[in-house]
Amino acid sequence: MLKKLLAPGKKEKAVIEDLTRHIKLLYSGLDAFERAFRDKDRDLMASIIDLEREADVIRRDVISNIYEGAFLPYLRPRLCRFAEVIDCVFDLLEDAAYQYLDLVIDASIQNYCTQIAALNERMCEMLLLSFETLMGGGDLRDKALAIRVYEKKVDDIKLDLVRDLRNVEVKTFWDGKALSDFVSSLTSVSDIIEDASDYLQVINVSMR
Amino acid sequence: MKVKEFMKTKLAYIDADSTVYEAIEEMLDKRIRSLVVNPENAEEVYGVITARDVVFKVLGKGLMPRDVKVSEIASKPVVCIDQDTKLIDAAVLMEKLGIARLFVCEGKKLLGIFTLTDAMGGSLILIARSGHVA
Fold this sequence. Notes:
The complex is a heterodimer of chains A (208) and B (134).
Chain A: H1 2-6, H2 10-39, H3 42-67, H4 76-101, H5 107-135, H6 141-165, H7 173-206
Chain B: E1 13-14, H1 20-30, E2 34-37, E3 47-50, H2 51-58, H3 70-73, E4 80-81, H4 87-97, E5 101-106, E6 109-115, H5 116-130
Parallel strand pairs in B: 1-2, 4-5
Antiparallel strand pairs in B: 2-3, 5-6
């Protein structure tokens, strides 16, 4: 049933390929962020901004193909929304990368941020598996649950991070704001990946 | 999948000469179920006090938490594993020893804690990755 609904024509295939590419690009971006943060590699961090632009192009292609008639009408808004949610994650990642370039991360929060960056990457890997499972007509339940487990872990680390962040000395209001914005962007990535996973579930259920 | 992907690195500590009352306060305040007990001197090793110790060894015996020192009920030494231990091996060790938490150590240094909940979360992810259905 799912395969019939999802892969009947050229336009649909193009959308599926683009969405897969979109998620894979996000996975690469999160992987690059994790490595850049861990190794303090500013050039690699700056490259994430280019990835975000590439992702924008893919999102536009997905949406224009859908508006040109790919998929049944009731599926179109959900698939568009899914692409937009993925794009939201890219926006957060780009914000975090930009903010990182202007910051000196205090040693007391370095480990927390590294852990969260690694978990974000793992969540995206699971989202990709989930999307591929949806395309193959499989059950998403275990993937969605795994994503929720990751999200809970990020939330736990976030609590400790925010608590310790209060002890980090900042010299000016803007330094403090940049640090706060960085932490906020980094820790929100997992929330939005979870939303994307929920959208996949909605698409899955609506096609039954 | 290795333990380091799932361990918690934030550990809460308490001194051995603190009272069990103080340990209860700390655990409730931080919403945790165990505290690492600091060594009393350089030759000593880390211990652990759990909610189970408090309930079974103090409250269940009708003792007053203010009258009992943490060192009197703490388990020592903590059970250590390497951060590269496989999740399944950690679970087997927990089952074998009948304990709910393992400490991730590097030499004498404690890096983190790996609990039953972490093991369950990890197992779900293993299932999701391998494509099996629970």
